[in-house]
Structure prediction request, 854 residues.
Amino acid sequence: MTAFPSQAIPGAAAAAALIAGLAMLRLERAGRAGLGPAAALVALAVGIGLAPAAHPGWTPLVVGVVIAALARDGDELLHGECALKLLWVMGSAIALSWAGLELLALATGTPYVLEQWAVLRLGLEPTFLWSTALPLSLLIGVVLLGGAPFHFWLGDMFQGVRPWLAPLAAATLQITGAVWLAARLDSVAMFPPGAQLAWGLLRIAAWVAFMAGAVTLGAQRRPERRVGTLASLNGALVLALIAAGRGPETMWLVYWAAHLALALTGASTLARFLPVSTPAGPGAPILRRHPWFAVLGLLCLFSLAGVPGTPGARLWLEVARALGTTGRHDLLVPLAIAWLTALWKAIEQLREAYGVPARPGATVRAVPSPARAALAISGLGLAGLASLAWAKLLPW
Amino acid sequence: MWIRDRIRAALQPIIHPDVRRLGGALCVAGLGLVWWPSLWTGALGLELVAAAFWVWARAASDRDEQLPRWRWLRRPALALWLATAAQAVQQEAVRHGLLPYSLATLLLWTQAAGVVWAGLELLAALPLARPFSDRPGPLLTVGPWLPALLPSTGFVILWRHVGHWTAVPEVRRTALLLLIVTAVLATLRAFGRGRWVASLRWLIVADCVFASMLVALAVVPHEVSLLLWLGACGGRVALLAGELRGMAPRRVAASLLLWRISNWAASIALSWPLLVTLGFGPPGLASPWAAFPTAFAVALGAWVTIRRMVEAPERRAMVRRESAVSVSRLTAMLTMVTGPIALIMAWWSGFDAPGPAGLIAALPSIGAGAVAWWLDRRPAKAPAGSPEAERGVDVARRLATVLYRGITALERRVVDALSKVAGALMAPSRDLHTGDAQEYLLFLIGLSVVALFLPLLK
Prediction:
């Protein structure tokens, strides 16, 4: 059987996420849902669709689009707050990383990454300069991936930003972060001291991201913030894979990006209709009135958590194998802790969503059809991705 | 409209199934999956069993108590998921042709620890959820019977995945130690409980623990361990089910006699190879430190089996005629013959006990049971139920209860202290930021400074 072309998969995932986003946009009141928000969604979806061929130079552009989309609604206070936080953190992180890039270019005399490693390998440059510049240049990648301690922006975004924008914006930013790191560390193995430094730093970052993410997830009670932390753990997977010296390979990145876009869309939409952690409360309306749509949303949530059998589990397993075979056992333990916590919380979320039976005759509010459509699109998209993987039709 | 209504009515049981049936289906499916030899199906099976308890608990009238009571059931499932993940990583690494020694060791340990954790926690052998057999389950009609499922499932996990956890000697030894402690505690609790149904639940725990010890020692083929467990534990589970159906096994003197003998015989058959091995087995397996507490637990179990199983008072106005060979009696007879058949199979496969060793090993169960029987048959000095007759029994029971509660309270305190330390260590991470945007910026700048200086420090 012929494998699917690699470009088609993130493209299809981006299109599905875009349609889901546009459907959710219909829920906005008149005056809010116009051409501007739709254009922002299209721009973000294009960012996801072009993930395999993305250029790190697009990073400020993507961050700018997200902040502009957030800041557009003057009367939406939570949007404004999120925009401000992103501007503070990502703006300064881009500036610092840009400074790192310029320092490297200054030290090596070339802006091209491969040439930089070749020049540095000659050992003519002072160690101080490149060893300072290299970590700085990685900073925006780590921030955008949302690995703890930068996981707060993902939680804030899923809790505070409108549901039509949050999943696409978060997925695009995270994918941009992964592309940044992949491009920045392309063929870094050619310069072993640089590779050791970069992988060492990213190993610390991944360790902190898994452990802090697991602790945070254990303490969180709001479903939206839980989705944010699960997204952050998915970002940590990229950090761990790079720390293992394994890329990320383009094909892995494509699968990860497609999965992230679909899973975040479904999980974020579902989380809006779930109650805050109440073990003995009545079930959420969506589960009582539209159980099949809820199941599709839960599939997305489970996939983010890496529940066995879902497409997301494949990503966790691949990273664990890469860490094990490259001897990074110190990262296997936090990875296992984070995965177990995610698994625990995913099932707990399912139980809280179903809650206890409502009293007989209690009326249940219907969930708007655009939200159901968004859940169906993302859930079926994810199921399609899983089917392709099971049928071995994926190009890796 | 008419067709639509009919379709909706037909789909109603699927969309909104009856809670009892849904829980039952989940439980049966889970128990079925647990018997499969794969870790993956085992983990899924435990997850389904936990889901079944949750489904029943959420619909119970006392759900506020039931839901937290059975929440721990997800821990064994999670432990088995961990073992499953370790196995998956191992298989993936082998498939890609690269499995470093250190990774293989780590994964082997993880699998062993995961399987043992799952099995021991269900056997009430870990201090986290030990007293679960004290309380009835969440379903109203069969609630008192439901907890008996859990130690049985624990044994099945340990038996089915024996290769995983006995491959690491340290894990096997630790598991054996915890099982011995549990055997003593379970029989003490069975002795200390006033109600026969509660005692029976703890005797089931003890039987599963003895059978798991046999599996850990691997002195008899695993099929024999299974058969011995089926005889001992299966008999008690059937007896417990009979208790919930109007105490049928204890209503008629002949049935009571048959059940007493069969349970006693099954206990003797289960404990005998265990005590032979622990007391007089090959070097490395034999240990007096393990044999004495195990013998004590075996003796106490036999005592409770004989002494506490008394004829039920007849309250029916009209006694229904019992068939000569009822299902209950047939089960008792099966229970009675299963143990000896398993021992013959063990002997056939090479298990042997030198003369005095075999006799001594049989002494705790036979001796304690015989003394209990003799005391039961002896004409009482004081009428049964009188304060004089009850006083001596009460003191012993109270002592057993105090001992059990003291040990479990100590365990609980240690676990609580560890949880508090972990909580105190993790508290600062929750206060890491207040949510102010300015604080994020300061944090980022701090991290950049660290990133700058980290390479210099290296």
